[in-house]
Amino acid sequence: MCEWSLRWADNFVAQGCGGSKEHSFQHPFLQAVGMFLGELSCLAAFFLLRCRAARHPEASMDPQQPFNPLLFLPPALCDMTGTSIMYVALNMTSASSFQMLRGAVIIFTGLFSVAFLGRRLALSQWLGILATIVGLVVVGLADLLSKHDDQHKLSEVITGDLLIIMAQIIVSIQMVLEEKFVYRHNVHPLRAVGTEGLFGFVILSLLLVPMYYIPAGSFSGNPRGTLEDTLDAFCQVARQPLIALALLGNISSIAFFNFAGISVTKELSATTRMVLDSLRTIVIWALSLALGWEAFHPLQILGFFILLMGTALYNGLHRPLLTRLARGRPSADEGEHERLLAGPRTPINDAS
Question: Which residues span the membrane (predicted)?
C-alpha cells in the first residue's frame, strides 16, 4: 500500500518555505528515503527475533554464516536508483498504472537470469513473459486513451510509464545480483532487506544535499525547480500534518510488507505471496477510483488480467491445477507423482 500512501501525500497542497505559494507535495527522493527507512526497520526486527531466539531455544533461528556486508552495496545502489525513478514516475501517472507496469520486472529478470545466471526457463515461463508484454501494451493503451487532467498531461503520463518500465530493468539487475552474490551466503531475508535499507538510507540522505542545488526543469515538483528541495518538504509537513501521516504510512507499509511477505513465503509459498501482491494492485486501483484520483477505463481490466496471467505462468501457479487434473491417472502414476512431490523443494524466484 506504499504507492497509495505516496499518492495520498502528493494530493495534499501546502505552503512551502519562504512564503511560497501553496503547491502539491512532490518530493520523490525524500519519499524514497522514507522507503529505505522502512526497509531499515527490518534490520531491527531481525535483531529482535535473534534476541528472542537466544532467550527461547524453541524459537531458534537458522545459524547465520559470516558474510561481508559490502555484498549488499551493489543491490542497494540498484534499489536506490530504481526506487527513485519510480517515485518520480508516480508523480506523472496514476497509482494503478504504476502498480501494473511494475509487472515488467518479470520480463527483464527472466532474460537476465538466462544471460548471466545460466538458467533455463521452462515453456510456461516464456509464455508468462510473452503474456506480460501483451499486458503492458494493453495498460499503456489504456493510459493513452484515458482522459487526462491539467495535473497529468498525456506527455507526462507517457514519460511516467516509460520511466516505470526503465526502473524495472534496474530492479531486475538488483534481483540477479542478489541471487548471484548474496543468497548463496544463506543470509536471513530480514537481515538482507535491512542491510540494503541501511545502505540506501545513508547514501540517498547524503545525496539530498547536492540535489538541493541541481536544476531539474520540468521534472522538478518544487518552486525552486531543483531536483529535490528537502527544506520545502519539511515546511509543507509542518503546515499540513496529514502529509506526515501519509509519509508515516509509507514507512510502516514498507516495513510490514517486507516482514509479512517473508513470513508468507516461509510459511506458505512464494506463489501465495504473488497472489497477495496481485490483490494489492486491486485494492490500490479500487481506492484510486473511489477517491476520484483517476478515471476508469475498461482496457485496464483486460490489461490487469493479462498481466496477472503472465505472472501466474511465470511463477508456476498453473502447476497445482495441472496436478489436480492429473488425479484421474492410474494409481501407479499417482504413487510416482507423490514420490516426486515428496522430494526436497527449492523455491524459484523467491523474493526477499
Answer: 29-49, 70-89, 101-119, 126-145, 157-177, 197-214, 242-262, 274-293, 299-317
